[in-house]
Specification:
CATH architecture: Alpha-Beta Barrel
Order of helices and strands: EEEHEHEEEHEHEHEHEHHHHH
Radius of gyration: 18 Å
Number of domains: 1
CATH class: Alpha Beta
């Protein structure tokens, strides 16, 4: 198994990372609630991801809640110099299955401080607003992240689940280096956000990048996968990487074998004809 190509990189502020990261949501318990069923496997996944060349791990305080960040520190601290840890704040989990936005300045400050402690960091390289809060002006939430940046608690600001208009409003307050929205080969409602990121030199981090359930039922994708002796999920990931130079997928898993499969997709090269046909798969 080869590691990720060292020359396929993208900028996240003043750091360069390989263009395939790891999303640490699924190392928690079922429903992204509580500890994982297999603690040792989750730790092994994190360590193996770094061994395979991944140098961006994305998490959030709401994953568990708190569990994902705690496991990352347990598995990987002290962190390798080249490893970037990104996290998010702005969603709270009062109960399993419940994800409530909280973009109040006081909450975001508290969330950031908690992430710093759990991750054992003096500064978070990329801190993202997890979702705009309809009850709080976006400018107040983003302004808080700008203040945390000025205070040295975070290095760079990112956004998640935003529109192009919200991105532009945030950019009027503080430099934005990335946007993390739902996007995959069969769900492209945020193509305009991706294009805005590409034109502005920002990283676009698609969450749910594989959408395995839908992808595995799409005949065109499964046909291409068979021709490469690959899985439909691997084709979906290879398509993302080819679709835009701004794309920075972060597929997640709680299994070392599944992690290995995802990383192998970075070596899958689709033909121009295949890419053209897959462009119409949505």
């Amino acid at each position: 198994m080869t590691s990720i190509a060292l020359d396929d990189t993208i900028s996240l502020g003043d750091r360069t990372v390989r263009r395939l990261g790891f999303g640490a949501m699924r190392i928690t318990g079922e429903g992204i609630w509580g500890p994982p069923d297999d603690h040792d496997e989750s730790v092994a996944v994190l360590r193996r991801a770094v061994e395979l060349g991944i140098n961006l791990i994305d998490t959030a305080d709401s994953y568990g809640p708190d569990v994902s960040e705690t496991l990352i520190a347990e598995a990987l601290h002290p962190y390798p110099d080249e490893l970037v840890i990104a996290t998010k704040g702005g969603l709270v989990r009062p109960a399993p299955g419940q994800w409530d936005p909280d973009g109040r300045p006081e909450h975001l400050r508290q969330a950031c401080e908690g992430s710093l402690r759990r991750l054992k960091l003096d500064r978070i390289h990329l801190y993202q607003l997890h979702r705009p809060d309809p009850n709080v002006p976006l400018e107040e939430s983003v302004g808080t992240l700008a203040a945390l940046r000025d205070e040295g608690k975070i290095a760079h600001v990112g956004l998640s689940n935003v529109t192009v208009d919200e991105l532009r409003r945030a950019q009027n307050i503080v430099p934005i280096v990335s946007v993390q929205n739902r996007y995959n080969i069969v769900e492209r409602a945020d193509e305009d956000v991706l294009q805005a990121c590409e034109s502005n030199g920002l990283a676009f981090i698609p969450w749910l990048p594989l959408n395995t359930r839908k992808v595995s039922k799409t005949s065109l994708i499964t046909d291409v996968a068979k021709s490469h002796d690959a899985t439909p999920a691997q084709v979906a990931l290879a398509w993302l990487l080819a679709h835009s130079p701004a794309m920075l997928p972060i597929p997640g898993t709680s299994s070392v074998s599944h992690l290995t499969e995802n990383v192998a997709a970075a070596d899958l090269r689709l033909s121009n004809d295949e890419l053209g046909r897959l462009d119409g798969a949505a």
